[in-house]
Description:
Helix content: 25-40%
Strand content: 15-25%
Structural class: alpha/beta
Number of helices: 13
Strand order of the largest sheet: 7-16-8-9-12
Shape: globular
Distance between the termini: 22 Å
Amino acid sequence: DFEIWEKASDLGGCWRDNTYPGAACDVPSHLYSYSFAPKADWLYKFAQQAEIHQYQRDCANKFELTPYIRFNKTVESARFNEECHTWEITDHTGECIQAQFLITATGQLNRPAFPNINGIDIFEGPIFHSAQWNHDTDFSNKKVAVIGTGASAIQFIPEIAKQAKEITLFQRSAPYVIPKPDRKYSEWETSLYKNIPLLLKLSRLKTYLLFESRFVAFASMRWLMPLMQWQWQRFMKKEINDPKKRNQLTPDYTMGCKRILISNNYYATLNQDNIEIVNSGIGCINENAIIDKIGNEYSADIIILGTGFTATEFLSPMTITGINHVNLNNVWSKGAEAYLGITVNQFPNMFMLYGPNTNLGHNSILYMLESQIHYTIKATQSVLKEKHKTINLKQDTQNQFNQRIQHQLSGSVWSDGCTSWYKTKDGKNTVNWPSFTFRYRKLCKQFSLNDYTVS
């Protein structure tokens, strides 16, 4: 007896929303898929947006989930009823249902972050976020201003550069960009993966172990990072001829402190004469131009915001109310935290997928999600089997877990002083998991009622 409430008219999350030109995954397709639903006929080693979205639809249909999804249902609030021991979930129309368990699967990269720039509302040309791409916009012979240099921007800039007259790129800080070992799968490869399932499993395992090994450079063996930085520098110098642009594209922070990006055509595109890079910051925007902080004016016909997402604002803008009318946003006022990123004290029978400190900088998030789902299943089965009403995480369990991972994060490359979407404004890393993914999976297999208060 369950329902899935989806705010949009289709499933897919970020792979439904991000339809900008060049949108693709930065994890190989054999690993960026469910272990229980392998796909042998991916077109590319790194799958593109449309193919991933179709894979999601196919999985929902294959496992007969689609009839349980109620589309166009935006959750406004969820309140724990202490008398009935149930969650009361209310949507944007006022409809309210009661449920014994509440599982949130809202992701971290679903709410676009819009910059607070003076004059942004008076710009007369098309202006839109990369996650809300305007496909009716014609870039032919136009001056395009791009704000932001994140994972989305490095994918769409090479595509719009094929049409635009000029591109002005406003970057707050330069990213590290390394080559993307992407290619199209041949017919004979696809045929082998289809007919010999073991080969597909071995390909997935090989990719997993390769990506997992990268974590040592982020934490325990950080002396490996200079080697990766040397490889990046060699790649950048090969692709960028202009010494001024090389200087502008050299990051001023330790490699890995922010997300490392992969692209084969980003640097080559920026090497073109019709693309200008601006590092001086944005002062304001007027009707037809962007003015930097030192007064230089850059005319623009179109502005694209590649400014990322509000990754640290978990479960916002929903209002989640737990025991004693406690508000989750207030509990998380100094930064979100949860046990295993899944459960929170004072919020009984509530489980999060992709919650605080479960994001990765080195492997596939689907591996983490399957671990979280496994833990949630064991927890709910335990409640039902023992005929309990609720389980509420103990505060000591939550505190000890989060003290441990914050200590681990303090010694990682993510704490080297840079500003990134991994951190809150106060500098707390509420996003990344600070260890190997197999360690996280082991922890998620160890569900114990001793960590909870049972009613």
